[in-house]
Design a protein that fits this description.
By secondary structure, this protein is an alpha+beta fold. It is built from 7 helices and 15 strands. This is Snurportin-1.
Length: about 325
């Protein structure tokens, strides 16, 4: 190769397959349309009927996925009978979880939204049968309270059908005791699972204010709900989300593909970005708020002894000796 020719004789390997998985996710949306109305109704009943285990601390747990052959796929209605780790594992699969942004998506400025993520506790909020319940991703109850959401209190359910319910994806921000709504799954009994993010955000901003849920708290509306500003992901929108002022503590940026449906589990159609300028949780801290000398990482032990992340595909960090594994597990 001539000295002046600095081009590589081979093509650099892709940093990730996130782009390919985004395209596959959009294709699956178009091909596989499930009965989301039934799923949403069962989810609302499950969250409201699941008994709160007061012995368990109300904190979020890191969920370590199990191998596919060991994982149990529970029906939504059966989940009401789950307890402990099984309940936590099931609820962790119901939220739509973002992947870390490790590459720049195609058509970022036209096909994506960006918003500043509030810091706080991620939870489902369900209003039905004259009451409102919020549950953390581990299944434990956060609050039970009256609200101005559809069928969310005894004072505003007279004009609603008994089957009317509402499911919101929220972050509870403790400093101002406010639920910041980042997505809407169902509204007044109508499922939005198979609607695009573009429509869900439009419907959320249109309907939530109409109910009075954004008003100040009152005896019949204990917590205030607020929407967050959603920007087109162009230069102006990125600047506003990244450095603009917000009424809450910021914890990174969320990126939503405008065509994405609401799907349970991790998805490459929703991405998260964090750095020291837009989040104070870039690094783990101890109980005093200090950054420890070493950071912790939760890895999955695969059947062949490899230690890997839960990414798809997983990132392998090492391998344990089979004799060591059998000794630790007490297998002779």
């Amino acid at each position: 190769m001539p000295p002046h020719d600095l081009r590589r004789p081979f093509k650099r390997a892709a940093i990730s397959d996130q782009h390919r998985r985004r395209e596959l996710s959009l294709q699956r949306q178009a091909q596989n349309r499930q009965d989301a109305q039934h799923q949403a109704r069962c989810l609302a009943q499950t969250i409201l009927s699941l008994q709160n285990d007061s012995a368990e601390p109300e904190q979020e747990f890191e969920i370590v996925p199990q191998p596919e052959e060991q994982a149990q796929d529970f029906d939504v209605r059966q989940a009401a009978r789950l307890r402990g780790s099984e309940a936590r594992r099931w609820f962790a699969k119901q939220l739509m979880l973002p992947e870390w942004m490790i590459d720049v998506p195609d058509r970022l400025n036209t096909d994506w939204y960006v918003c500043a993520r509030p810091a706080g506790k991620r939870c489902f909020v369900v209003s039905s049968n004259g009451t409102t319940v919020s549950r953390l991703r581990n299944g434990s109850m956060l609050h039970r309270f009256p609200s101005a959401l559809p069928n969310g209190s005894r004072t505003n359910n007279s004009s609603r059908s008994g089957q009317s319910y509402c499911i919101l994806d929220c972050i509870f921000h403790e400093p101002d005791q406010t639920y910041y709504v980042i997505d809407m799954l169902c509204w007044a009994g109508m499922s939005l699972y198979e609607c695009t993010a573009e429509f869900r955000f439009f419907w959320l901003n249109s309907k939530l204010v109409e109910t009075g849920a954004c008003n100040d708290p009152s005896p019949y509306h204990r917590y205030r709900f607020r929407t967050i500003l959603i920007y087109d992901c162009d230069q102006e929108g990125l600047k506003a989300a990244y450095s603009g002022s917000v009424p809450y503590m910021k914890d990174g940026l969320l990126f939503y593909n405008k065509h994405a449906h609401y799907q349970s589990g991790n998805t490459p159609l929703v991405l998260v970005w964090k750095d020291e300028n837009c989040s104070q949780y870039v690094l783990d801290t101890d109980s005093t708020g200090q950054v420890p000398d070493q950071q912790q990482l939760v890895l999955e032990l695969l059947d062949d002894g490899r230690l890997a992340t839960s990414d798809d595909p997983p990132v392998v960090f090492g391998c344990l000796d089979r004799d060591f594994i059998q000794k630790e597990l007490g297998i002779s």
